[in-house]
Amino acid sequence: MSTIRLTTSQAIVKYLIAQKSVLKDGSVGPLFGGVYGIFGHGNVTSLGHALEREKEALPTFRGQAEEGMALAGVAYAKATRRRQIMVATSSVGPGATNMVTAAGVAHSNRIPLLLISGDTFTSRLPDPVLQQVEHFGDPTQTVNDSFRAVSRYWDRITRPEQLTTSLPHAIQTMLDPADCGPAFLGLPQDVGAEAWDFPVAMFEERVHDIARPRPDRRQLAEAIAALQSAEKPLIVAGGGVHYSLAEAELAAFATAHNIPVVETVAGKASLEWDHPMYGGPIGVTGGTSANALAGEADVVLAVGTRLLDFTTGSWTVFKNENVKIIGLNAARFDATKRHTTPLVADAKEGLLELGEGLGDYRAPDDWSTTLATEIAQHNAYIDKIAAKEATGDSGLPTYAQVVGAIDRLADENTFALAAAGGFPGEVNNGWRAKHLNSFDCEYGFSCMGYETSGGWGAAMAMPDKDVVVFTGDGSYMMLNSDIYSSVIHGHKMIVIVCDNGGFAVINRLQTNMGGNPFNNLIKDNPTVVNPVPVDFAKHAEAMGAISETVTSIDELEAAYARAKDADRTYVIALVTDAYSWTEGGSFWEVGVPEVSDLDTVLAAKADMVEGKKGQRL
To answer: Which CATH superfamily is domain 387-575 in?
Structure first.
């Protein structure tokens, strides 16, 4: 057997370079688009050295914080529809634990991400090393064990030859449509530098194409029978539609069988907003049209969705007591939630075979008439609140207006990106997807701070797009340093920062549940003695971005035109209303105190108890 002597670190880099992928356009490209790296004593001398020697074949990008790098990797994989993966590497200790949050984002959203962290010495001779957290009764445990809860695949490499089995398993896990998620490798400092005679065959080029499992015949027959009996069928399109590249099949299926389609946050832009079968966004961050259709539906085909509580309204949105839910999903776990009728399969293949089995079946015309009526009312409402002349009670621009302004200016090259806080409900309703796959809102883990880092990753993956990042002041303050990353690497994005004085949407939840406003808006924290406003434009300018502050929607539109023409990342900041929000969502279960001296809290508790009566068990 022919061999080549390499260090563990060199072998990892060489193996990653050899992996290729069938991309979304059918061409073949690198499976690994690059490495985000912050080097420290746990990874600089060995893995860093190996990356430097292969910097042309596997480029390394310098992030500013480990969490941000890994979040950028999540957005990159989303943008490539899970066909390409980024690597994030850190030293042992805080560098590693900084990435745990991003691993949680990747895990909950079913996104591939390879995380490689330095680890303590297997010899234990230098122990305790700098940054080592000691566990008195278990010397094998390190901070890297914290990744076990947020990884699909976890391994600590204690001998070089373990790579021959560990690396293939890690990659297949990340590419498996059912088990997709982050993979973690702990790399002890001594092992990363050790050498072994690796088989040359291990580094031969391999092209990966994501599997498309077809449905079981019995499950397929049961799903077909359920749909054929439906008077008011409904399709809930989730993120799996995008990852399966099944948008065309979804549109064809819905049109042929006259079935309305509503979208989850992850599934948004599966259909264009003006498609005749489009019913709007569903759930807590959804609108009246989709939730009304869900309330009447007798058979629900849930395609590629994990049925998050924000989609199901904590399982109250499907109000028909006899509703039947068909879970079309590559993951058995997601296909069988809440006693659904499972159809374990790839979204594209599943829709094709369902369509063949349904034959000439079409839902009654009065059902599509209901769809048309509901979506027209929803659109009229959005037109009203997003209009340029509309304002909140404060007279300040609202989130809905900001989204509406950019939406009206969007073209085929516009890609909208947002995350937690107040924007998910606003972009989910107000961003009208004129083009497929033009949207990313991280809401599986609801991770504040994803916006800026995610924008960097998306811009890296789609250099031909105008990546528009919508972020609030709260998220911006949490994680903003990848504005600098985008500038120095030449990955332009347009960042809209809406300053409403703190964590305004959580303040809304707090007061809606009867509580007094406290500690969410800066002005409502009694320990704040000097509430200095942040000049976001100057802050972004200090990181090399072009930036400006605007005060009206007219000024925002003009600034956006300048941003599109700019040669690097452009940040636009404006003060917005903290109390005006898009309405139309569904019930959402949260914990409300049973005992309180506030009558408003007790009233909210009574409403919560009443709302829970509608939950599907």
So the answer is: Thiamin diphosphate (ThDP)-binding fold, Pyr/PP domains (3.40.50.970)
